[in-house]
Design brief:
Length: about 350
């Protein structure tokens, strides 16, 4: 581990640490359906900053797609757009941006404005006879940032910190629970008892579930109250889902504890998991900017899904129907990890 960990981390972090955002998923509402509107969409696509992945029929679909995180921005092209760009009529294009992640939002805001401006300059001969709201010929682009209009980084980092702190605390708490018994020699006493491995695992976790839940409530209260990040959604739903994440993280720690033979080994294994999760989960760096294999690795980290839940409920006010996929995946992770831990401990009892 001493030789391989630096090598693994330099390649892993070298690809994951990237603030250059590209390929931002974008929804398109084209109410003009003209050659000019299709040309504008192609300009966005050719820039490599935007990927027009979904074409919608109304603004309600845009709201649902942004709430679920399937797109990060949307462009609304009004009817009469072709007349405007040819110098007849007056209409404006609207660019809606998800402001939860300020890094992605700033890139979308700046790139979208520049692309629209360049498009209008190409159309300048046709637009010279048309004066828009600015008093200058050009394409009028109206931008609107949702959920974090001022692009405050605090509103992005505080929910992420709550999830990260809870993961680190809970994993470390249980990573030493069984391995401590092995080092002290008291594991033999458990071996001769009639309790099953699964019952022993659950029994070891119950106190830590209570401690982890209390820690989560403390982090949630001070994170939202002290740093002025109000919870836009259902607080009770957030607490329930937080308990599910606590159980899932504790399961990771208990699995480490069944595999490790010493507390030093358990500590190394815990950090081997915790360090990559900081980057691959989307806590700091946008997952959209990561290479595909690195992004896929993040799907195997429960924190990735809990960060979506935290930011969804706290910033967007998302309900269970929007977060259902993340909740089911967390439940599946928890059950699978507990099952593997029980099997691993049973093998060592044999």
């Amino acid at each position: 581990m001493a030789v391989m960990m630096p090598l693994i981390f330099i390649f892993l972090f070298g690809y994951a640490v990237n603030t250059d955002v590209e390929n931002i998923d974008m929804a398109v509402l084209d109410m003009d359906k003209s050659m000019e509107s299709r040309e504008l969409v192609k300009k966005f696509e050719a820039s490599n900053y935007f990927v027009p992945s979904v074409y919608v029929k109304n603004t309600g679909e845009i709201e649902r797609l942004i709430d679920t995180g399937k797109v990060k921005c949307a462009i609304i092209i009004p009817s009469g757009f072709s007349k405007t760009v040819n110098g007849f009529g007056d209409s404006s294009v609207q660019l809606i941006i998800d402001g939860v992640d300020p890094t992605i939002a700033r890139t979308a805001l700046q790139s979208g404005f520049l692309l629209s401006k360049n498009y209008s300059l190409e159309r300048l001969p046709q637009l010279q006879s048309s004066q828009l709201n600015t008093g200058e010929p050009g394409l009028d682009v109206r931008t609107k940032v949702w959920y974090n209009p001022n692009l405050e980084s605090t509103k992005f980092t505080i929910p992420g910190l709550i999830g990260l702190i809870m993961q680190n605390i809970t994993v470390i708490l249980t990573a030493f629970s069984l391995v401590r018994e092995k080092e002290r020699g008291t594991i033999e006493l458990l071996m001769v008892t009639p309790i099953k491995p699964a019952e022993l695992i659950v029994g070891k976790m119950v106190p830590y579930i209570l401690i982890g839940t209390l820690d989560f409530l403390i982090a949630l209260f001070f994170g939202t109250y002290w740093f002025d990040v109000p919870i836009a959604g259902n607080t009770m739903l957030l607490i329930i889902l937080g308990v599910i994440f606590v159980i899932c993280s504790l399961s990771i720690g208990i699995l480490i504890s069944t595999i490790a033979q010493t507390q030093a080994q358990a500590m190394q294994m815990a950090f081997l998991f915790l360090l990559p999760s900081i980057l691959l989960s989307g806590f700091i760096f946008p997952r959209e900017s990561m290479p595909f294999p690195i992004m896929v690795a993040g799907y195997f980290i429960p924190l990735t899904y809990f960060l979506k839940i935290l930011r969804g409920i706290i910033l967007k006010g998302s309900d269970f129907t929007i977060l259902a996929n993340e909740v089911y995946i967390l439940l599946a992770f928890g059950i699978a990890l507990l099952a593997v831990a029980s099997i691993s401990f049973k093998k060592r009892l044999d």
